Structures are given as C-alpha cells and as structure tokens.
Amino acid sequence: MKSMSMSLIPVDAVPVEELSEEDGRRMVSMQVSDVLGISLEEFRRQVAEGRFDDSRDDAVLRLMMLLPFAE
C-alpha cells in the first residue's frame, strides 16, 4: 500500500474575514435565496419541520451548515 503525505499550509497563509452577526445573517440569507429562492426565515422553518432531513443535495447541506452563522 502506497503511503500518502500531506503538506500543511501555515494558518496565516489563509486569509480569514470575521463577520459581524448582521453580516453573517446577510450572507446566509443571500445564499439561501440564490440556491432555493426562499427567505432565510422560510428555510429555517422548513429545516425545523424536517423537510431536508433526508436531503442528499450538496447545496442544501451546505446551506444547513451555514445556519449557525445566521443566528
């Protein structure tokens, strides 16, 4: 079995931009609107109802992972 090695990237080599709570909500809201064509509030409601529990759609799963940024 061939051994694989990974090169590490120094932490300071990747630019990081901190978002305010308002900017986080705006970012997620725009993504939800662009991908699903619904509001952030409607997406939250549908997630809470379990509408996407079995989703295998990568775009929907990414949106669900972004929800903490919209709290």
Quick structural summary:
The chain has helices at residues 21-36, 40-48, 58-66. With 71 residues, the chain is an all-alpha fold.
Q: What does the model show?
A:
- This protein is mainly alpha-helical.
- It has one domain.
- The chain is built from 3 helices and no strands.
- It has helices spanning 21-36, 40-48, 58-66.
- The protein starts with 20 loop residues before the first helix and ends in a 5-residue tail after the last helix.
- 7% of the residues are buried.
- The model has no long low-confidence stretch (mean pLDDT 89).
**Fraction in helix:** 40-55%
- Number of discrete helical segments: 3
Strand content: under 5%
Distance between the termini: 46 Å
> What integer is the average pLDDT?
89
Features:
single chain, 71 residues, mainly alpha, 3 helices, 0% strand, flat
Task: Please outline the helices and strands.
Elements: H1 21-36, H2 40-48, H3 58-66
